[in-house]
Amino acid sequence: MNHPAEKIDELSEDLYPSRSGAQPRFIERLDPVIYSAPDSPDSPLPTEQLKHYREQGFLVLEDLFSAEEIAGYQREMADLRANPAVSRAEETITEISSGDVRSIFRVHRFSALFARLAADERLVGIARHLLGDEVYIHQSRLNYKPGFRGKEFYWHSDFETWHVEDGMPRMRALSMFITLTENHDCNGSLMLIPGSHQRYVVCSGQTPENHFKTSLKKQEYGTPGDSCLAELVDKGGIVTVTGKPGSVIIFDCNLMHGSNSNITPYPRSNLFFVYNALSNQVGKPFCNQRPRPEYVCARKGIRPLRGDLCDGA
Amino acid sequence: MNHPAEKIDELSEDLYPSRSGAQPRFIERLDPVIYSAPDSPDSPLPTEQLKHYREQGFLVLEDLFSAEEIAGYQREMADLRANPAVSRAEETITEISSGDVRSIFRVHRFSALFARLAADERLVGIARHLLGDEVYIHQSRLNYKPGFRGKEFYWHSDFETWHVEDGMPRMRALSMFITLTENHDCNGSLMLIPGSHQRYVVCSGQTPENHFKTSLKKQEYGTPGDSCLAELVDKGGIVTVTGKPGSVIIFDCNLMHGSNSNITPYPRSNLFFVYNALSNQVGKPFCNQRPRPEYVCARKGIRPLRGDLCDGA
User: Fold this and answer.
1) Do A154 and B263 touch (CB under 8 A)?
2) pLDDT for position B99
3) Which of A91, A166, B160, B238 has its CA 20 to 30 A from that of B189?
4) Beta bridge partners of residue A60, listed in sequence order
5) CA A133 to chain CA mean position, Å
6) 3-state secondary structure of B29
7) What is the pLDDT of residues A53-71, one digit of tens each?
8) Mean pLDDT across chain B
9) Which parts of chain B register pLDDT below 50?
10) Over the Cα atoms of chain B, what is R_g?
């Protein structure tokens, strides 16, 4: 096993500097994409899917859940969105223009069903294998992009933000999301740049104070320059991720992604779980700002997921 | 031949009222979609394409132009966009935020090549057949949606605007556009609601003074309500029109269409010609505003296109 992240505590330098007056440029990835050995006999994924994930940086899995399970997740989503206490919670982000609920962070704290799902071995087993370590939930959220007036979300690498603003040391985390509505090619679905996870894009600008308060609605800092983006797309193209409700999309923490606006009547909801390696816990942010709130970035009471309830449900 | 529009001069009533305090609702279309007889022997299109256009309201034609012709149109587009005199012209519309050129109206007046293309019998012959009449250019424009920061354009029926703001009496016009860059499913390509041309959506609100100055950048009046849109999409779905450069897309004047934003590096350029039936010339606007400028809506010196140069080149 290749375990460069196990020496985190010894590292004090910033291996992936960004913002703070940096010029836009590429840094080659210093970390593996898949941490378990290629010939590991207990892989929950077949070799061809591992190869696809390593090279492209993402994977789409169908049929992981039964129709009954998916219907249950959809009912839970509707209940959460209709719950005034949830709407008022600090974890809930609303659309700039309309006030509609756009995201519910730390959603596994609001829902026992989603806490069980976050810890479900069908998901956690894959995360554990890809990251070669025990894992925990760095962040969870329910994203709801309404129809007619859903706003675009500009290109970014999650890792760039998690590194700079949360102090995540290495690229040893991934996102899984479960589609709860159909993701069409026309309703602002996630767009990925395949292969972009292999290079780190240093972004210009600084990190403003309390950046998370605006960046969760509209990201304006930590976004790549035009020429870096054009180079990534020139090499890897763009994939719009579409799928029926219940599809699972897994993507590397450093994969460049974004989404166009949504003027169609089709709303788009996805349930996100970010799994981080236990050995890759966050430290001091690599910027001059205070750490973001616990509901965006877990720091307290971290323990590995072992198929039981996710923490705090 | 079904020729209801030949009696225009006798009609003084507003058959398609919209705005002016109207409540959002549907009016069934009173006009044919194809005005020539179904068994007309001189149709430039095969029966199945006519059927598709009648039922769906649009048609995509490939291979109408040679590779050399398409390359010539692309060079002409680049020359026009790089021409400071064109950028400064009143016919040229710029992006709200960036100042980039977004549209050049009456583009056939700036380019002899595009004037010849507007009058090309391969296009005009189809327009003449579908509209069952001699035709002229009601409006022409070169649309340029830049990469990275291309804005969305909300759902609308062109006819609603041409009727209310230009005084176009009946649904006897159509748009043809030629793709000059590749239209992907991810770069803000045109979205259509198939079959929506069969119903007229009455829009709420008024027409503000000099509406064209803002509506050509961002349409906020003359847009349908959510419930009407949802009903149209529920019945017809949404088609994102994709195609290689040089494809020709024809769509009925009353087809509901719009486009999402474009954060991809792929710019998107299309050359639009709006053909109107000679018998359907515009009159007094069906609102309390002055007519829009000549470069948005032709009124003077109208003469039928006959395969020679389009007027005024």
Assistant:
1) yes
2) 65
3) B160
4) A249
5) 18
6) coil
7) 999 999 999 999 999 999 9
8) 89
9) 1-11, 312-313
10) 18
The dihedrals phi and psi of B227, each to the nearest 5 degrees, come to: -70, -40
Query: Distance between alpha carbon A1 and the CA centroid of its chain, in Å?
Result: 24
Instruction: List the single residue in B with minimal CA-CA distance to A266.
Output: B230
CA–CA distance, B265 with B150 (Å, rounded to integer): 10
Taking only the tens place, the pLDDT of each residue in A181-236 is 999 999 999 999 999 999 999 998 777 777 776 666 666 677 898 999 999 999 99
Would you give the DSSP letter of residue B42? T
Q: How many domains does chain B have?
A: 1
What φ, ψ does residue B56 adopt, rounded to 5°? Answer: -95, -25
Does any domain span residue A2?
Answer: no
Residues from chain B that touch A189, judged by Cβ atoms under 8 A, are none
Domain that holds residue B275: 28-36+53-280
Which residue's entry shows tokens 């609100």? B205
- Residue A136 within any structural domain of the chain: yes
* Set of chain A residues whose Cβ sits within 8 Å of the Cβ of B258: 263
Query: B150 in a domain, yes or no?
Result: yes
pLDDT tens-digit map of B150-192: 888 899 999 999 999 999 999 999 999 999 999 999 999 999 9
Q: Do B258 and A261 touch (CB under 8 A)?
A: no
Half-sphere exposure of A204 (CA within 13 A, CB side): 7
**A25/B contact by beta carbon, under 8 A:** no
Residues in chain B: 313
B200: which strand partners?
B27
Q: Is A30 exposed, middle or buried (0-12, 13-18, 19+ CB in 10 A)?
A: exposed
Residues of B in contact with A260 (CB under 8 A): 152, 186, 188, 260-263
pLDDT, residue B10, reads: 43
> Complex ipTM, two decimals?
0.85
**Cβ pair A240, A227 in contact under 8 A:** no
Q: Measured between beta carbons, which residues in chain A are less than 8 angstroms from residue B184?
A: 238
**What's the whole-model pTM score?**
0.88
Hey, what are B275's tokens? 């053909």
Enter the DSSP assignment of A22: P
| More reliable by pLDDT, A212 or A252 | A252
At A182, which CATH number?
2.60.120.620
pLDDT in tens, A136-189: 999 999 998 888 988 888 999 999 999 999 999 999 999 999 999 999 999 999
B264–A152: do the CB atoms touch at under 8 Å? no
**Does A183 contact B at CB distance below 8 Å?**
no
Q: Which of A98, A229, A264, A268 to mutate to test the interface with B (most CBs of B within 10 A)?
A: A264
DSSP A40-60: -TT-SS-HHHHHHHHHHSEEE
| C-alpha–C-alpha distance, residues B68 and B153, integer Å | 32
Query: Is B312 domain-assigned?
Result: no
Report the alpha-carbon distance of residue A309 to residue A218 in Å, rounded: 32
